[in-house]
Amino acid sequence: MSIADLQLARPATRPAPTGRWLRSRIVPPLAIVLVILGAWQATSVFLDPLLLSTPTAVFAALVAMAGQGQIWAALLTSLEEMFAGLAIGLVLGIVLGLLMGRYWVVEKILSPYVNFFNATPLVVTIPLLVIWVGISTQARLLFIVLITIWPVLLNTLAGVKNVSQGYVDVGRAFGLSDAQMLRLVSIPAAVPYMLAGVRISVGLAIIGMIVSEMEVSMVGLGFLLTSLGNSFQTSKLFGVILVTSLLGVLCAAILRLVERLWFRWIGEVSAAQR
Amino acid sequence: MLDIVGVSKTFETRDRRVAALQEVSLSVRDGEFLSLVGPSGCGKTTLLRIIDGLTDATSGRIIFNGVELQGVSREMAFVFQDINLLPWRTVVQNVEIGLEGRGLSKRARRQRALQALELVGLETVADAPPYTLSGGMQQRVGVARALAVDPKVLLMDEPFGHLDNFTRENLQVEVARLWQSLKMTVIFVTHDVDEAIFLSDRIALFRTNPGRIAEIVEVDLKRPRWEYNVRAEPNAIRLRERIMDELEVRKLQLA
Q1: Which CATH superfamily includes the segment(s) A55-273?
Q2: How many angstroms separate the CA atoms of B70 and B65, rounded?
Q3: pTM for the complete prediction?
Q4: What ipTM is given for this predicted complex?
Q5: Which residues in chain A have Cβ-Cβ distances shorter than 8 Å to B84?
Q6: CA pair distance A57, B179, nearest whole angstrom
């Protein structure tokens, strides 16, 4: 067989794109999920369902909860607190990060505190927050702000300080003022870092929401989790865990979408550099 | 008239001092095409950056039309070897970068940028993102970005260094045409002797360690040079040999 034959033969042996996609991307993961769910269901034969419950029972519990409205109220409260806290945390983090990146003095003054807070496991502040503002929405909000602010701040700072020298040269050679350099070069160049920080902060916001509700409330998903646990309602407990997981997955997907829609260059540029 | 007067640049690291440029003086004539040629490390790029004000000289002065320049000059524009188009801006927005803060309306800025893109034949991709362009096209955008600010002096730092031979030769002709029609002064850094001969009125030959100008040679070849095979001209061949001897390329090769 000559080389020409090989080249001619190749396209014909290649499977249709959709068929390959289905076979490689959908079938194997689906099969694994089914195996895991099956194994989980099988554990009920030798394990008390109080410990692990079963997929079917969890599904039934979720349907029941959705009908009662209990989980909806909890979800709504939690989401309100989470997004309000996250929004405040992100704005503060980005603004402070930019100020620190822009003004050397601000960085000198603030960085010890930033490092201190970033290194502290901030759950320790919860009792203090309760003393200050009581068991309240404010305490939970404050906690979420307090834990989401640092990753986005540090990433923004790193982004502004690590702008490629080539971009800075271009800005300087073409006579940009300091303010223009920040607005037109440094901030856009720092966006990939900022988005990475936002991704971490979003994850922390979910954790902060759950933890603060477990400790400091009679509402929300966190409280629901604690009370379901205390009353050994394992199936419902798994249901709520599933809901919080989906929330995290959803947030990550939204962030990816934002990046794809508004910051397409990030993927393109890093792909070109690879 | 652009005068480079006794420019020196020393880079200091912890354990040693490197004299990148030592007492370099050079008068650039209005409207001439001057190339700076030399081996890597001879300070030619550093000199170009000093002329534009991107790098500070350790000592010496840059005098343009009788005025000593401080900081980045508005009379000059720089074409970088690494073009560094900003990926979050479209092609035309990249060309507009030098027009920011010059009190132009958005529309006027775009207009001027589009004119500059037209000069390099890229007006049709004005609204494309820069990373969709080939290397040669990106470097054309780099040239348009510099032309958009209407500079009196165009500083080009090995602009075609990363490009393949075909693209490179096309762009050389394009730059020669632009220079001829726009009548600006061009200072062009390259290590490609043929490129320098094809483009230049004069070529400043650099030596290294410390970086300095060894000799300035006139290129006395008929223009426009894209209308005949310059490389085959006896005068060009002689000039090339002389430059290679001066740069001691031969000696290095024999050693």
Answers
A1: MetI-like (1.10.3720.10)
A2: 13
A3: 0.84
A4: 0.90
A5: 164, 166-167, 169-170
A6: 79
